[in-house]
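Researcher: Here's a chain I'd like modeled. Treat it as a single chain, no partners, no ligands.
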Amino acid sequence: MSNIQDSSAPTDLVEQIPGRDPFLDDSEDHESGSGESQQEEIALPSPGPSSVPLNMSKPISPSPSLPQVPSRTVSSPPRPVPTSHVPAPSSPTPAYIPRLTAPSMFLPVPNTDPLSALLTKHVPPERRPRRDVVGEWTGRDMHEMVMSNSWRALAKMAHDRIVKSDPEDLARILDLWSLRLSSLARLRLTNQASAECTNLFAVLNAVPPQHPPSTAATTRGPSDPSGMSLFHARVHYWTGDTLGYVDALSGILGTCKERARILAIAEANLSMWLERTARVCLILASQLVEMKDYQAAITLLTPLCTRRDPSTKRPIPSPAVYSAVGRIYLIAGNVPKAVNCFEIAASCYAPHKKDQNSSSEGERPQKDTVAMNDALLSAALGNWDKAEEALRGLLESEPENFTAMNNLAVALFGQGRITEGIELLEAALRISPSTVVVAEPFLFNLSTLYELRSATAIDKKRELLIEVAKWSGDGLKTTCLKMPSN
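Model: Modeled as a single isolated chain. Structure tokens:
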């Protein structure tokens, strides 16, 4: 059993976006962490998807060689532009790009998925749950479709609305394109998403440069990283070009820093660009961790470890980012550095305990983070008893913390208590099936424990498959169920 997952949300490394001037500094001369001797390999979560499944063995590997971030010559930042010289935004001119709404820009969404194939093979027809593989969206609320993971219906809804849109309503069309590409990615139709994104940018890149900023600068290129440019960068990842993906994200990050430097003196939209810079940093750090370039990820996140207090304007440490950096150090096997980061994060939360005006709602996430850090560190050191104690304390304050439940099952497995781990995960499945069946590491761990307990695991996994088909929606990676599809 090798993995304990993080309690953060599935999409970002941290919720808190620090805003400080180091964003605007391209210097990469940060302290480089040394590769200490690596302990028993605990596959901790990357800053993106926060869960990692169980392994059947406990490999002991030597300390990884932590790659250094290559130095590069960075030009001096441009001189601050006086407030009076910051150009006022020009009034937008309506853009007319009819090709964006052409039906030929799209490919058909298939009406089948790997989960349907598993149901056909392993479950008799009378027991198969009814699933929407057509993608019918008429009369359904968008929020309900998102919450139920109906990505096929959302993809078809976006397509139908795009082709019927007024070509002059560019903002709405691009929003629908963003929804379409996001839904295809959730469906794991990466080839189709890449093709449609390439078609989209072939049209956008044909927009003449004399178009006003509202069209050329906002809809294409990295000037709007929260929009379409991140999808364009993601195409490299979908096609297996991870280095190209890193290069594309680095270009977006550089543009964000440049825009923030230009606007720093004027304070015009500065906070927006600082936030965009931070978010791109987190996306890039997630990819670097996935590539096992841990030192590069740590170097990238180091400027985010402190933020400027909005009231006093003084720099203060960010415990959420320190916790994330500490967990990356654990992956790299540098336990002393991880302990140091966790201690800083815990010290940041300490003053809140003395603040009589702090609410219990604000204190609980802070205590949860500290408890999860303790559990991760104990697991990395092989101290499963202490990890179990920390996680049970976390569940006492928040009984429906399913991340802690999954991690506790890992700790129980580490002690050889397989039956208790199965009972714990099955209890979580009964409490909130719609929440846990979309967590692939949870399903992988439960399937693994079924296999270890008895030779009749296929019957248990068949029942699990039925529950997953009832609640999971679209886009589940069915390999987590560990069932043959052919």
